[in-house]
Amino acid sequence: MKKYILSLAVLSLFYTQSDACAWSDPDYEYFNLFTQSIIKDKSYLPFLLTYSNRFYGDYKNMTIPDDNIETWKKFFNNQLNYAETENLVYKISMNDLNALKNGTPNNPLLQKLGTGFYQKYKEGIDYLIEAKYLEPYMSINYVESPDSFYSSPSKSQNATSIDYAKTVNALTSLYNATRNPEIKQRYGYQLVRFNHYTRNYDAALEAFKTYIEPIKQKGTVYFMALDQLAGAQRGKEMNSDANWNFFQVFMNSKDRKESAFVSMKLSDTASFSNIMKRAGTNDEKNMAYFLLGYEGFTDPIPIMEKMYDINPDSEILKVMAVRSINELERSYLPIYYYTSDATDSPNVMRGNADDHNKSSVDAKSEPAEVKKEEKLSFWQKIVRFFKNLFGGSKSDRVNGDKNDQSDDDLLNNPDRIPFYTKSNYGYDEKTNDYLDSLEKFTEKTKKVSKDEYWQIADAYLKFLKKDYKGSSEVLEDIKTTNPEYLEEIKRMKVLNDIVSHPKIDAEFEDHLMKDYAEYFVKKEVKKDTAAVSDYDYYGETPSTADFLKDVLANRYFLQGEDGKSFLMNNKLSDLQYNPNSSLVKSVEDFYKKPNKTRFEQQIIAKNMDNVGNIDAFFSTIYGDRAMRQADFEKAKSYYEKAQGFAGIPRMNYDWTDKGEKITPKQYTADEYNGFRGISDLVFGHNVWESFGSAETESMTAEDYSGFPFIKNNMNKLELADALIQLKKISNGTDEKAAKASQLIGNLLYNTSSLGYYRQLFVMDIDNSNGGKYDFWNTDRKNPYKYYYKNFLYTTYIEPDNFDLAINYYQKSLKLSKDKEQRARILFQMASAEQGKYYQYEAKNASTVNYSDPKYSEKEQAHQTELDHMRNEKYRTYFAQLKSQYADTETAKGLAGSCSYFGYFLKR
Length: 907
Fold this sequence. Notes:
There is one protein chain. The protein is mainly α. It contains 39 helices and 9 strands. The strands form 4 sheets. The chain has a 3-stranded antiparallel β-sheet, with no helix packed on it. α20 runs antiparallel to α21. The chain is elongated and about 120 Å long. The relative contact order is 0.07. Keywords: Signal. This is Tetratricopeptide repeat-containing protein. Residues 347-367, 396-415 are annotated as: Disordered. Residues 1-22 form the signal peptide.
C-alpha cells in the first residue's frame, strides 16, 4: 500500500479549503475594522475566527505567555526578566550551565548573574542541566505497522535512543534527592514524558500516580505532566480519560491550549459532548460550552446564553462574541462589490484568451457559429456581493445630473447605487436577524459585565446597523485605560464620523485632512526603479484606511464625481485598460480643476501618476474614440495635441533569483507604442484569422497605388489625415471612390473587436488580452454601479458600431464594377455583420437557472431561438455572397480558408 507522510496527513484533518482556487484567502476579503485580538486573555488568540487556517494566524506575531517561563521566572524570584528567563531555560547550552556550576561561567548572562547564582538556585540549575541533556531525545518513537497507510519523516534520535533503565534510574534518584517540591515535580514530569515517548504507557500512568500526584501542587508543572499522561492514555485507547485530561490542560494552561484542543480532537470523535457530560464545576461547564460553540459555529448565540448564565464576565464569552462579530463583518464588509444584475457583463480577469478569436489558432479549425462560452473570473466566484450597510436604490446606474443633489436625496439617487447595497447573493434576512440577536445579547451583557469590551462591541454592531448616532453615543460613554480598547474606540469614532456624512464637499475634505490625515496619507516607501520584491498575491491585509477610502470613492461616485471616485482607488495610467469616454472626461475635469482642496491635492491628485505628458495621454484616448466613431476630423484635432504622447504606460515584470524585477517598459523606435508604428496593412484584409501570427502572415495589403498619402508606416495623426483624404475621395462616383470606401471600411473593421488591429484605438499594445474585447450586454454608458475599485477586474469600453464599416462597404459595393472585388467586399460586410450578431447574442444571454429541472430543454430552446435569429437577420451578406458570387475565385478561396463561410456554403 502506498504510504504518505504522517505529519501532512494529520495536518489535513484540520485545514479547510474554502475555495477551489488554492491561492484564495478569505481572511483578505474583508476590512478587519473590529480588531478580534483586543480580548485581554491572549492565550485564546488561536481561537479567534479565521477561514484560512485551522487556528487564527495573526497570534503568531503576538505574545502568548509561556507558562513554563513564567513559572521559572517566579522560581528565580524575578531576578531575571521574561526574555532572560527564556534564554536561560531554552537557549543557554548544557555546557554553559555546567560551567556556571563549576564557577567558571562564560555566557554573558550567567557572568552577569555571578557564581553565587548557582548556589542560591542549585536544585533548579541541576534540573535544567538534566533537562537539556534529555531534550534532544524527547520525541515519541514512531512504530509503523506493515499495513500502515502513513509513514513518518525519519528522525535520527528519539526517546528510545537512550538507555531506558539507566534514564529511569537517574531521574528517580534525582527525584528522591530533591527537596524543592516544584523541582521534584519537574523530575516526575520527565519520568511521565519519557515513559510516554518510549510507549511504556502503563509505566507513564504509574509514574504520574507515584511522582506527580503526591506533590500537592496543581500548577504549571502538574498540567505539563497531565498533558503527557493524557497522551499515554490515548496510547492505551483510554480515550475518554485522555480527553478529559486534555480538557483540563486546555482549561488551566495558557500556551498549550491549541495543542490540547488538537489532542482532544484526535482522542475522541465525540470529544466535546463527552466532556460536557463529565463537567462538574461551573468553570468546567462554561469551558465545555465554549468548545461546543467553537466547534459548531453555525449559531453560537444559544451557547453564549448558557455561558452568560454561568458567568457574564467570562473571557471565553468575549471570544465567542468577537468571533460572531467577525462573522458578521465578513458578511457586511467584503473588500469588493460587483453587481448581481443580470444585465451586466461578467467581470473578466485581464489576460484571458479571447473567446471569439483565439490567438495563434487558424480560424479554419472551428466554425464561428459555435456559441461563445461565458467564463467567470476568480473574483466573481469568491467575492461576496453587496451587503446592507448604507441602503439605497437597486436601479441601474446611468449618467445622471451631477453635483446638484441635496444631502437628503443623495443616498436615494435612483441613478447610482450606494456602497454595500443588500443583494440576493450570499445574503438573506437571517443575517439581519442574527445581527439583531447579537446586538440584544451584547446590550444585555454590557449592563452586568465590568469589562468595557461589551460596550465597544455594542457600538460596533450599531455601526453595522447604520445607527451611527447610537454608536457614537455608546463610544462617548466608555471609560477605559486599556490601550487596545482606546485604539478601537478611536477607530470607530472616525468610522461613524465619516460614514454618517452622505455628501463629501470641500469643507468636509478639509475636516478629513485636519483630523484624520493618518488614515489617508500613506507613508512613502522609497523603491528602486528596478524594484525586486517577493511575490505576494494579496499585499497588505485590508484595513480601516482601505475601508474609508472605499467609502469616499462611493460617495464621490454617488455625487457624480467619477474622476475623484476613480482616483481614490486607481492611478491615471489605469485608464488605459478601460478607456470609456465619460469616465475619462471626468478624470480630465478633475485634473484641470483649479483651486483643489488640500485633500484633493495630497490624496486624490497623487494618483495622477507618471504617464509622461498628461494632456497628450487624454488627447490620445479622445482621438482613439473619435476614430472608432469614424469622426476622422475630430480624431485629427485630438491627435495634433497628442504628439507628445510618451507611450502606453506599461511595466515589465521579470523573475530573477532574488524575486520579481519591475521596470518601466521602454518602447523601441520601430515598436507600436499607442501612437506611432502603424503599418499600412491596417487598410488591408486578413488572409486567415490568426491573431497570434505576425501581421505579414495574417494580413495582406490592398492596392494603394492610387492613394500615395497612405504611408508604409504611420503615426495616428498621419493615419487620421489619410482617412480624411480617403473620405473626400469616397464622395465620388467612380472606381477610385469605391476603393477609398472599401479601405475605410477595412480600417474600421480591422480595428474593431473582431479585427487583427483591434488594439489600435483602445489603448492597448497588441491584440491579445481578450477581456478587452468582450461583447458587452449592456446599453449603459458605464457599467460601474458602486465605485471604481474593481476597475482592473472589469473590462469595458464602448461597443463597436459595425454599421459604420458596413455603410462604407455598402457604398463601395454599389460603385464597384469588378465582380471579384464585389465578392471580397460582401465577405467583409458579412464579417462585420457577425459582430452585430455577437452583440445581439450577448444582450440576449440565457437566464435559465442551472438548478432548473428543465435546464437542458430550456437552454436548447434558447439556442434554437438564437440560431433562428442569426440566420434570419445576421446572414444577409453571406446569403448574397452564396447566391450571387459562389462562382467567383474569391468566394471559392474564402470557402477554403474561412471556416464559418465554408460551413455556411454547405448548409
